[in-house]
Structures are given as C-alpha cells and as structure tokens.
Amino acid sequence: MENEIDWNSKRYAETQAPVVEEILKTASDHRHILEERTEEIIANEDLFRSLAPHMNYPRILMDKFVLHIDEADRFRVRMHRFKSKNQNGGALEKVHSHKWDCSTVLMSGTYTERQFEITDVDEERRTCRVVPLLEHTLEAGQMNSLPMGRAHQVINPSDDEACITLFVRGPSRQPHARIYEPESGAFYDTFGPDRQTKLGLRHIGRVDPDFH
Ligand SMILES: [Fe+2]
C-alpha cells in the first residue's frame, strides 16, 4: 500500500479506491494476518504505545483499533466494531464528513450507510441543505469507499450482531471534519482530540454550556 496508492489523488473514489478495496479484500480473505498483527501489537510494548493513543475503546457506537500507521502517515489501517443496538442502547451516529478518503471491507455482520449531498452552504450562518444521496446495506465480504468531505451516517441495523470492518484512511487533507443536523441544516466543525479538548476548555472556563 506504501507504493501502489496515490493518497493525494483528488479523484480517490474513481482512481484509487478500487485498488485499496482489492488490498483490503485480500487481507480479509487471509484473516490470520490480522490476528497475527493484533497479537504482535499486544506483545510489543513500544508498538502498542505508538498506536494506542490513536485507538478509541470502549466507545458507544464504534470501537476503533489501529493496526498500522504508515511512517509518513499517508494512511492508517484500523479495525472497527459497529456495536449492535443492544450494545449501543439505540444511539444513532450523527451525519458527518471526514477530512480524509477511506475504504472498508466488512468482515462480520452488516451495516447500513446513508450518504448525503451538502448544498446551499452558508459558511457565515453555518447552515446548509442535507440532501439524501444514497442508502445501501452491506454484508460481510462487501466493500465500501467514501471520498473526503462526503457526508454520511453508518447504522448497524442488528439488535444483537456487531459489525466488524477492516478499514483504511488516507492523510488528513482538510482542517476539520464536520457534523450536520439534517432537519435544521445546521453544521459545526470538529477537530482532532487535542484541539477539540482545548475548544471545550475555552467554553467551560467561561461557564458556557453551549458547545459540542
Ligand atoms: Fe464516518
């Protein structure tokens, strides 16, 4: 993946995603590779320390485990667990966009993804229109890719079966991700953990509860 993919392509979905998906599919067809890697991370304390800050577990909707970060951080390989409804208490992921391109192969369970087109953006008033673009339900063995900036929402429709995916994301190429509220058309930016925490600190220091 170091050499085969142009992670700075402006046409990721058309030109790069098919190649990335093929690599992911090969890995998912040889899942002992994944188990060997997770065991290696557990056994190697330095490796664990380097990856652990980028993981998020446990989380309400989706647990995030990082298997590899490219040395130039052009891409990161992760495994996700989208929790079942019984596990997440019926919580629903917000419509959001990412600051990178990404591809996924489903390894167990199913998920439903909704994608949206964002139009009529007013950066001053922080409003837009969130227009449904597509909805598809994917099963184990199927692949999916999402270009940078495309709004989406992933839902695990199962009451009791979690969905595990193998995932790769490219480099961050925008300063922020964005969360959308489809009904009101409001949106706001989100940042990496440190910058987001500083934003929260600024508000709470002012005893201002109105922050995300
Ligand atoms: Fe997402």
Describe it for me?
- The protein has 212 residues and is α+β, with helices and mostly antiparallel strands.
- It has one domain (12-205): Sandwich (Jelly Rolls).
- It is 25% helix and 36% strand.
- The protein has 5 helices and 11 strands; from the N terminus they run αααββαβββββββββα.
- The chain has helices at 12-29, 32-43, 45-51, 85-88, 193-205; strands spanning 62-69, 76-82, 95-97, 102-108, 110-122, 127-139, 143-146, 151-155, 163-169, 177-181, 186-190.
- The strands form 3 sheets. A 5-stranded antiparallel beta sheet has the order 1-2-9-4-7, covered by helices on one side.
- A hairpin with a 6-residue loop joins β1 and β2 (76-82).
- The mean pLDDT is 96.
- Bound molecules: fe (ii) ion.
Summarize the structure.
The chain is α+β, with helices and mostly antiparallel strands. It has helices at 12-29, 32-43, 45-51, 85-88, 193-205; strands spanning 62-69, 76-82, 95-97, 102-108, 110-122, 127-139, 143-146, 151-155, 163-169, 177-181, 186-190.
User: Helical segment tally?
Assistant: 5
Largest sheet: 5 strands, antiparallel
Number of strands: 11
Bound molecules: fe (ii) ion
CATH structural architecture:
Sandwich
Q: Which consecutive residue ranges, at least 5 long each, have pLDDT under 50?
A: none
Shape: globular
What is the average of the pLDDT values? 96
Q: What's the arrangement of strands in the largest beta sheet?
A: 1-2-9-4-7
Helix content: 25-40%
Layout of SSEs?
Layout: H1 12-29, H2 32-43, H3 45-51, E1 62-69, E2 76-82, H4 85-88, E3 95-97, E4 102-108, E5 110-122, E6 127-139, E7 143-146, E8 151-155, E9 163-169, E10 177-181, E11 186-190, H5 193-205
Antiparallel strand pairs: 1-2, 2-9, 3-10, 4-7, 4-9, 5-6, 5-8, 10-11
Fe (ii) ion binds next to loops.
